[in-house]
Automatic annotation (TrEMBL):
Transmembrane segments: none annotated. Gene3D superfamilies: SCP2 sterol-binding domain. Signal peptide: none annotated. Pfam families: SCP2 (PF02036). Residues 35-123 form the SCP2 domain. This is Acyl-CoA synthase.
């Protein structure tokens, strides 16, 4: 991700490759979760990744466990994050500053903004 423009990332984020990359990223969230940092946190975080089509994943944090599922439930999320493919990949690879992304409207957050501000401390985010 480092060194690539948003357009370059968007060019490669299509079809089967996009599906595979999103699946890998969300599949690793459970393993990269830091239960000690989350403490008694209980939250549903909805990720809306836009691009060639919108894909929704939900991350549930409760009782020191993180679970991830593809798709949207009827449960109200405490936090919803919406961004394009390039912004998402920058964010989860540690190559994007979430505050800057919000200010430049590449990342839209609704709901518990305090949760959004501290989200990175609940996961080991690799630098790539």
């Amino acid at each position: 991700m480092k060194g690539l423009t948003g357009g370059q990332i968007d060019e490669i984020a299509h079809g089967e490759l996009r599906t595979r990359v999103l699946g890998e990223v969300f599949g690793r969230m459970e393993r990269q979760f830091r239960p000690a940092a989350a403490g008694a946190l209980s939250a549903l975080i909805r990720w809306r990744i836009t691009g060639e089509s919108e894909v929704v994943y939900e991350t549930t944090i409760a009782d020191g466990v993180c679970t991830v599922r593809e798709g949207r439930t009827d449960t109200e999320a405490q936090l919803t994050l919406m961004m394009g493919d390039a912004a998402f990949l920058r964010l989860v690879s540690g190559n994007g500053n979430p505050v800057t992304m919000v200010l430049t409207r590449k990342l839209k957050a609704s709901g518990d903004l305090g949760l959004a501000a501290g989200l990175n401390r609940y996961f080991d985010i690799p630098k790539a």
